[in-house]
């Protein structure tokens, strides 16, 4: 899911993807427009010359350490060297820098573990552990969302609520994703499962007026109906006629629009 296109991206595109996956909180990131997701990293690259960033990193300025590691990891404005970038990030994680900086470093290192050319099962495990650390430090970024989707959609890992406490870092990913989804209505654009029953057959995306990142996939009308109690607050369908039971009216139009 994540590794497929990354190796073929240009350095600035890698920088953009890595930055947006690891720095902004997931709740903020999913609300940004495509233009904002491009402009924010672009201006970061243009804001400071890499030489100044390198000098700041040498002085142990944690923001410059993170920035220089990000540039080295992606080859944006600096020679690409993932090993040195990883070493710098692990140094931040293991140091006494502020927790929010250590959390970002953990996310960046997690991203590297799953995107490196030689990434393997151990790399994925390390990535999940680092995401758990970032969550523990109070920062939930999109890299954690991506890892959850890899677990649930690529690896078909299913963790019922009563099994998560014993599942270690993966259990933390599942719990946090559930809370994130409940708070934001987030739905993965390339979902391969019906949100209600988990099937992969004949999926259709909600065609209501919910935001693109809030459109769930359903396999049939019964599943759509079952999920309405969760999705209703995110799906706004205009009610043409007055109806004393507005929720019912919206629900009927919602089903009609989905076909």
Task: Kindly describe this structure.
This protein has two domains: 179 residues, no CATH class; 55 residues, no CATH class. Helix content is 58%, strand content 2%. It is built from twelve helices and two strands, in the order H-H-H-H-H-H-H-H-H-H-E-E-H-H. A two-stranded antiparallel sheet has the order 1-2. The two termini are 29 Å apart. 35% of the residues are buried. The model has no long low-confidence stretch (mean pLDDT 85). This is MYND-type domain-containing protein. GO terms for molecular function: zinc ion binding. Keywords: Metal-binding, Zinc, Zinc-finger.
Report a brief summary of the structure.
The protein is an all-alpha fold.
SSE order and pairing:
Layout: H1 11-22, H2 26-29, H3 34-47, H4 50-58, H5 62-74, H6 82-94, H7 99-115, H8 121-136, H9 142-154, H10 169-184, E1 204-205, E2 217-218, H11 221-231, H12 246-258
Antiparallel strand pairs: 1-2
Helix pairs in contact: 1-3, 1-5, 1-7, 4-5, 5-6, 5-7, 6-7, 7-8, 8-10, 9-10
InterPro entries: Znf_MYND
GO molecular function: zinc ion binding
Domain MYND-type: 194-235
């Amino acid at each position: 899911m994540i590794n497929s296109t990354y190796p073929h991206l240009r350095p600035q595109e890698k920088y953009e993807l890595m930055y947006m996956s690891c720095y902004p909180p997931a709740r903020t990131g999913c609300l940004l427009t495509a233009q904002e997701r491009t402009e924010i990293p672009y201006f970061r690259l243009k804001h400071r010359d890499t030489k100044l960033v390198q000098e700041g990193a040498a002085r142990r300025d944690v923001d410059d350490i993170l920035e220089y590691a990000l540039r080295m990891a992606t080859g944006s404005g600096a020679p690409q060297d993932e090993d040195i970038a990883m070493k710098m990030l692990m140094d931040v994680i293991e140091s006494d820098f502020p927790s929010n900086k250590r959390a970002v470093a953990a996310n960046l290192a997690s991203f590297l573990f799953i995107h490196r050319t030689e990434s393997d099962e151990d790399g994925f495990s390390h990535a999940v552990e680092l995401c758990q650390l970032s969550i523990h430090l109070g920062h939930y970024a999109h890299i954690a969302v991506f890892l959850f989707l890899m677990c649930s959609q690529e690896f078909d890992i299913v963790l019922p609520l009563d099994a998560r406490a014993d599942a270690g870092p993966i259990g933390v990913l599942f719990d946090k994703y559930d809370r994130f989804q409940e708070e934001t209505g987030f739905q993965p654009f390339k979902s391969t499962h019906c949100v209600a029953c988990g099937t992969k057959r004949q999926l259709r995306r909600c065609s209501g007026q919910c935001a693109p990142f809030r459109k769930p996939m359903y396999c049939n009308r019964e599943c759509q109906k079952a999920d309405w109690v969760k999705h209703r607050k995110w799906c706004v369908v205009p009610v043409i006629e007055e109806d004393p039971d507005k929720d019912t009216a919206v629900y009927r139009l919602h089903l009609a629009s989905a076909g």
